[in-house]
Structure formats: C-alpha cells, structure tokens
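Model it.
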Amino acid sequence: MKKLLFLLMLTAISACKNDTNQASDSADLKELKGEFVYLADAAVLQTSQEIYGVIINEKMHELDDMVKPYKKEDTDMVPVSIKGKIIPKPEGEEGWDYRVEIVEILGVSKPTESTNNVIKLGE
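Modeled.
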C-alpha cells in the first residue's frame, strides 16, 4: 500500500513539473502580425516593427500552403497572424537579427492593394 501511495505521489509531482514547463514554453511565445513571403530557401515575416527570418519547418510550409491562394506573383507578401518563438540570430551568421519559429498559425488575410506594393522591372 505504501508503495502504491509513493508511486501516485511521484506521478503527481512529475505531472506538475511538466505542466510548469509547458506554461513557461507558452509564455515564451509571442503573437505576431505581419506580411509573410517564402521563396526557394528563405522565408521572411515583416511586421510593422521588425523583420524576422522564419525558421523553415513543417509549420512554415503549412503557412506557405495557406498563403498561396492569395498570391498573384511568387514575390507577393501576404498578411498573416502567428504565434511563434523569437530567437536571436547566432553571431557570425548572415541574415536578420531575429528569427521566428512558427508554433501556431492564427490566420491568413487577403492582401489589399495598398499593402501589396510590388515594383516590377522590365515590363
């Protein structure tokens, strides 16, 4: 009986410990709204305050699939809302100062004419 009680207490303690880790992980997430574009091997999220390199993973590809119907050109940027983890760029690497790892996609919007300014050369 004592062994069973001990196992139950141990399980309860470890479950609480996992909950606090998940809570701190979600506290590290930030909601970002901006314009997203993915070309070949680089993805960018431009907000009103910052430009982020987007870490290429499964969620980034999911977001890219969601924005494709709104794009007329490959270079079109599409308004999105995401939750992500912001990570400083490692020293010595090229690119934007911060990267974002997309954790959750909150929404995708149709670009308006005023937000989708594209300069075309050679036409």
